[in-house]
Every structure is written in structure tokens, then in C-alpha cells.
Amino acid sequence: MSSATRILLVDDTPENLDVLSGILEDLDCQLIVATSGERALELATRRLPDLILLDVMMPDINGFDVCTRLKGELSTTEIPIIFVTARTDDISQGFRVGGADYITKPINADEVRARVRHQLERQAMLAELKSFNRELETKVRERTSELTIANRQLREEINERRYMQDRLNYLATHDFVTRLHNRNALESFVSELLARIQVQDVNASFLMIDIDRFRVVNESCGSIAGDELLRQFADSISGLLSRNDFFARLGGDRFAVVTYCEEGDKGEALAQTILTHLRDFKFQWEDRQFTLAASIATVPLARTMVSYDQVLLAADEVIFVAKQEARGGIYTYADAAKRSNLHKDNINWASRLVDAIHSQAFRAYFQMIEYFPVAQEAAAPCYRLEVLMRLWDAEHQRMVSPGEFIGPAERLHLIPELDKWILNATLAFFDQHRDLLEKMDMVSINISAFSIRETHFATTITNSFAQYNLPPQKFCFELTETQAIVNVDAARHFMQLLRNFGCHFALDDFGSGFASYAYLHQLSFDKIKIDGIFVRDMDTDASHYAMVKSIVEMAVSLDKEVIAEFVETPEVANKLYALGVRWGQGYHHHRPQALTHQSLEKLLQLNTGQHN
Ligand code: C2E
Ligand code: CA
Ligand code: CA
């Protein structure tokens, strides 16, 4: 309690006031007195005491009424009131009108002090709590406003980042001269559409537009004029397209439109609209005026088209034919295929190979790789084979050899599909015939260098092994020498991954290419296959013999295993044996045949015991 604490004492009997004042003296409070209800109300409103001791029985306004009025005023409602009364009946009435406590007469000093102290302490605590709450509220308000600001800043940052991201995406997918979609965007769009076409009936066509006289403008007026022409051209063609058409610049003077067409139309209707429009299109640059013409290739997006590359290649072929014949006009895929013998082959192969993938026309063949044991060796027989691919031509009832279709498959970017097919066919076979794999020492599979350039090809392979749960240590991949060198980085990466996985690698057709020691060191092959053209006649051709001999010596020095292919006669086999070659493959030992349980088992049984 402090001297700032005010207590109002109200009683119509001055003696009572004296007694109370006397009791409360040592509390160190300021005491105010009132001898009537009226005066009490006036002092209470003016001086705002911290506590009121109020007599009940007073002549003018009694204590209860005083209390009721004080409680009704906003400024005085919180002031605690202790009633001072001689009648115990008054106690409950006092509480009803808002009294905080009561003191009974005759007055007991200790009781008065205790009740007063209690009220004052309670009051002080309430005040403290209130100020604490006020502080808290201020703090909350401050924090809220800080948070609002931080939030706004964050939102701004997010928006800015989103804008940058959008901008980057835009730049990555748009051509900055014409603002059209670029090649990347086109590739994603076509790839997605092709996937959709595999499962839905969608009639769509790919148009490649090649401006015929673009170079004239570019060379005679400069590249600023050239860019302007491209922009105007793009704008005017855009005006002809519908909202669902996809328009992109392929680069240079080439554009592409992917359009959804009516039943029976293969994009020719739109191509015709574009050509007609171009007839009236004039490009003005300073005082010169140019007319334009274009060649348009239409390629229907059929189910046989499996990749963007294939579509682009087909369109390229058609434009090529168009350019050879004349300038300007619409060329359809079917027309081009008919007119050009040169390109007919590729176009035919494209659909044949894609059909073959879908119709299971590929076959797995195999050829044994023979082990030549050293005389004193009493080794258990070792069996190895190489898987070779064939294509069944149902129309002509013949087996087509890979010499015919690997080349076109590589040109058409379909080779990864073929390589995946043979890998899975081989793994599925040995998964079903684990008894045969058990007896095998190694199974070789050819992989094209075009496949290893595909970023996920190695993972595709490891996934297949995981799917069939077969030991990678029993499998070897053959890469040809020339291809491995052309793609040395891709090859190194690919081999590293699969070597760590446990697979083996053979460098195929070695000798005919240009692989130097340096390359052999860089690439982690563990086997070298001498190119068959040196082996086949090494018994009669001295230079070929010398070649084989030097390859064997080099391989020994590099600690690589040597395999000779095209071993066609016993004479050649003997020469190889004399040179220390331990593995031979050729018609002398085994002619390739279809990979079946029966055919392979027969060979394994036949040979059992032969080598010991
Ligand atoms: P390659 O890897 O050098 O396979 C050996 C080729 O020589 C096979 O021809 C085989 O039938 C043939 N051959 C085996 N022994 C003799 C013999 O004593 N004399 C002669 N003249 N030839 C023999 P094939 O099966 O026609 O395969 C040709 C090439 O096609 C293969 O050469 C390989 O580079 C490629 N190839 C075969 N299957 C696949 C495959 O599944 N994927 C890939 N990417 N390429 C494959
Ligand atoms: Ca091979
Ligand atoms: Ca070979």
C-alpha cells in the first residue's frame, strides 16, 4: 500500500468515521471522509478512490443505493465497496448490489485491517494484470503488423521468383525472334500427343513449312530484314490457325504446325489454306517487295509413329523430295514415299520396324562361342553364346538378317527399341530356363552405340536385370570398335555404370577400326573380339595372319581376353590355338540358330565331357 492509495470512508456518524480513520491510520493511505450518501457519490466520482467503506444506514441515500449508483457509472463501477453494517441481514443484500465484502459493527480493528488490506491487494493485482494485458495486446499488435509486413515481402519475393521461373520457362520453350514455340516445346508436345494417339482415337497431322525464298531476303537485305520477314510470316500464319493448333519455329526458315484434323483429312486442308494465303503475302523492305512461296510436308500422326524423331525424319524426307522436284506446294508423306526411290527405303523401314516391335516379329537367335582348352587343362566345360537378332518377314516367309535392318534402325533412331527388345527377350528366356543359365559361363548381347547415347539406357538395363532377378555377372555386352570411339564419353559413362553393376564388355569387330592403345585404356573392356575379316582367311592370307597375331599380342599385354570370330575351318581354328587364342566363334563350331530350350540344351549335353 502506498500514500497514493485512496480510501473513502462513508458514515453519517462522525464518531464512526473517527474510529475507522484511527484503525486505518498505520496503512499509509490517504483517507477521505463523507458523512452522507450524496457527498459520498460526489467524492467517489471526483476523487476515484481505490476502496470505499460504506455505511448502510444513512438518512439521505442509504448505502445500498449509493453502491447501486456507483456500480452503474463507468468510472466508478470497478471500485470495490465494503459495507459497514450492524445487521447481518444486510450482508446478502450488500453482495447483491455489487459489494465486495462487509464489516460488522461493533467494529473489530483487526477485521477491518484484514478486509481492507485484502481488497487493496486484490485491487493492486487486478491493476497489474490489466497493465500486463495491455502490454501483451500492444506486443501482439506489433508482432501482427511485423508479420503482415514480412508476409507481404515474402509474397513479393515469391511472385518475383515465380515470374523469373515463368520467364526462364518461356525462354526455354520459345523462339525469341518470332515468339513462337521452339523445337524443345514442339518435341514435348508431339511426344505427348503420340503417346495419346497410342491409346485414343485422335486425328492429327504434322505440317512442316519450309519458306522457299527466305535466303534471297536474308542475303540481299541482311539478317535484320530476315528476322522481320520471319516475324511477319509467323504472325500471318498464326492468324490462320485455330486455338488448338500448335505452331513452332524449327529454326532457320522452317516452321511446324501440329493440327487436329477432320476425319479423312491428313492436314492437307490447312496446308492448302496456308499456301493460298501466302500467294497474297508480300514482304516490304525499304523500296523492295518480295513475294513468298513455301513447301509444306504433311505427315499424319499415325499409331505407327512412336517418336518425335521419327515424325521429324519423315517430314524431312518429304521436304527433301519436295525440294528436289520443284518449289512450292504440298507434299504428303504417302506421295513422297511413292515418288522417291531414294527415300522410299527409309520410309518403308520406319513402318516395318515399328510394326515389328508391336507385332512381335523379332526373333532371338544364338551362336555358341567355343572354348579351346590348353592340352594339360582338365577344366570343366565352359559354355558361352552370343545372342543375335532376326526379323521374321511374314509376307515373304523369310528370316531377315540384322545386316539389313540394323542400319535403317539406327538412321531412324529406332535402334534403342530393338536393343531393349533383344535384352528383354534374352533375360526372359533365361529367367524361364534357369537350368540352362546355370551351365552357361557367359551370355553376350550386342548393343548399338546409338542406344548408349540415350541417357537412361544403362538404367533401363539394370532395371531389366532387377525385374528378372538374374546375375549380371553372367552377361556381356558387345560394342563395336568404331562406334565406341565415336562416342567415347557416352561409352565410358555407360560402361562404368554397368561394370560396377557386374556386367562384362567386349570390343566387337576389333582391328577394322582405329582404336589405339589410348582408347583401349580409357574404356574398360575386358574382352576383345577380332574382326572376322582377318580371321576367316588367316591360314592363307599372310597379312591377315600378321594382323591377328599382333592383336593377340596387344590384348595379352593389356590383359584382355581374346575371342576370334568367323572361325570357318579347322585350319583356322588350329592357327588360332597356336597363337594362344582360347575362344573362337564361327560356322566351323556352330551356325546361329533360334534360341529355344531344346536347341540350347542339346548343345550343352552334346558337349558335356568332350573337353576333359
Ligand atoms: P557381329 O556382332 O559381329 O555378329 C557376328 C555375325 O557374324 C553374325 O551375323 C553371325 O551370324 C555371323 N557369323 C558367325 N559366324 C560366322 C562365320 O563363321 N562366318 C561368317 N561369314 N559369318 C559368321 P548376324 O547375325 O547377321 O549379325 C550381323 C551383325 O548385326 C552383328 O555382327 C551385330 O553387329 C549386329 N547385330 C546382330 N544382332 C544384334 C542385336 O541384337 N543388336 C544390335 N545392336 N546389333 C546386332
Ligand atoms: Ca557381336
Ligand atoms: Ca563381329
What report would you give on this structure?
- This protein is an alpha/beta fold and 612 residues long.
- The protein folds into 3 domains: 6-171, Rossmann fold (3-Layer(aba) Sandwich); 183-341, Reverse transcriptase/Diguanylate cyclase domain (Alpha-Beta Plaits); 348-607, TIM Barrel.
- It is 52% helix and 19% strand.
- It contains 24 helices and 22 strands.
- The strands form 4 sheets. It has an 8-stranded mixed β-barrel, surrounded by 4 helices. A 5-stranded parallel sheet has the order 2-1-3-4-5, sandwiched between helices.
- Helix 12 crosses helix 13 and helix 14 runs parallel beside helix 17.
- The termini are far apart.
How are the SSEs placed, and which strands pair?
Layout: E1 6-10, H1 14-24, E2 30-34, H2 37-47, E3 51-55, H3 63-72, E4 81-85, H4 90-96, E5 101-104, H5 109-173, H6 183-199, E6 204-211, H7 214-221, H8 223-238, E7 246-251, E8 254-260, H9 268-279, E9 282-285, E10 288-291, E11 294-300, H10 308-325, E12 329-332, H11 333-339, H12 341-359, E13 362-371, E14 384-393, E15 398-400, H13 402-411, H14 415-432, H15 434-439, E16 442-446, H16 449-452, H17 457-468, E17 475-480, H18 481-486, H19 488-501, E18 504-510, H20 517-522, E19 527-530, H21 532-535, H22 542-557, E20 561-565, H23 570-579, E21 583-585, E22 593-594, H24 597-607
Bound molecules: ligand C2E and calcium ion (2 copies).
Keywords: Coiled coil, Phosphoprotein
Domain Response regulatory: 6-120
Protein name: Bifunctional diguanylate cyclase/phosphodiesterase
